[in-house]
Amino acid sequence: MGWYGRGPGRGERTSLLGYGQPLAFAARGERHCLGIRRAGRRTPCPTERTVPGRAGNAQCPECAGLDRSFSVAADTNAGDPRTYRVYLAWFGAGLVKVGITAEERGSVRLLEQGAVAWAWLGRGPLMATRRTEELLRAALGVPDRIAYARKRSVRGDVPPGPERAAEVAALHARAVALEGWPESLERLACEVTDHAGVFGLDALPAPARVITEMVPGGTVAGRLVGAAGPDLHFADGLVVDTRLLAGWELVAPGAGGETDVPVAGIPAGGRDAGAAQDGLF
């Protein structure tokens, strides 16, 4: 998890979350826009506007618009000179998407999306990978976007590793055999990577409830058993979409003399693990 502090000398930092460990935090104050973060630097929102609790993106409309003006996903940065890669991402039986990511990011994009298994298809200039993405979407009948709710719904009941690898490999073979790939795009051999161990899928309980909004004083507490994409999975079946935590000041439950509101998980007041008094990004 990434954090930033508003006080002097409190810049950005990260903290590792361990499976099997207790985790507890409460939201304090209001949820504010995170501003813009580009090339490792954060530009604060000049107005520090509040953001709705249910919004998946902790940005005000103005900051979100500026972000999209430099976005590859929004096709507003077509001149990006970096090398890109096309990938197949598998989330469950029959639930596959195609996408692109900058080669320098490695597998980070696949981890962010919660891909259980995946494989590279090709590499080359940005616009060549974009054209290939569109070709594969049409020819293979797979989307370039899948809602997190759908990924979450199948995550606890995925088939064995060999079966998911075989499904990815079969789609890879169909993809690289298609005609119409741009000449500047290099086809890549099939090497399926599996994230089941990284995500802790073997220990995940069936999702019992999902947090849809944090509120001031709202508390989450429990034992962390897995994490896939933006989702934190707790032992009692609670799922926390961390995108909804971004922009809040998170504190140890009970800090600041506020009354804890049990949003979900075990009863409020458990203080086995407390978050620093910083904002999450």
Structure, explained:
With 281 residues, this protein is an alpha+beta fold. Strands 1, 2, 3, 11, 12, 13, 14, 15, 16 and 17 form a ten-stranded mixed sheet that branches. Strands 6, 7, 8, 9 and 10 form a five-stranded antiparallel sheet that branches. A hairpin with a 2-residue loop joins strand 12 and strand 13. The termini are close together.
Instruction: Characterize the main sheet.
Output: 10 strands, mixed
Poorly predicted segments: 257-281
Beta-strand proportion: 25-35%
Report the structural category.
alpha+beta
Number of strands: 17
Radius of gyration computed on alpha carbons: 20 Å
Helix content, binned percent? 10-25%
SSE layout:
Blueprint: E1 2-4, E2 12-14, E3 22-28, E4 36-38, E5 41-43, H1 61-68, E6 83-92, E7 95-102, H2 108-113, E8 117-125, H3 126-140, H4 148-155, H5 161-176, E9 186-187, E10 193-194, H6 196-199, E11 209-210, E12 218-228, E13 231-234, E14 238-241, E15 249-251, E16 261-265, E17 278-280
Parallel strand pairs: 11-14, 12-16
Antiparallel strand pairs: 1-2, 1-17, 3-12, 3-15, 4-5, 6-7, 6-8, 8-9, 8-10, 12-13, 13-14, 15-17
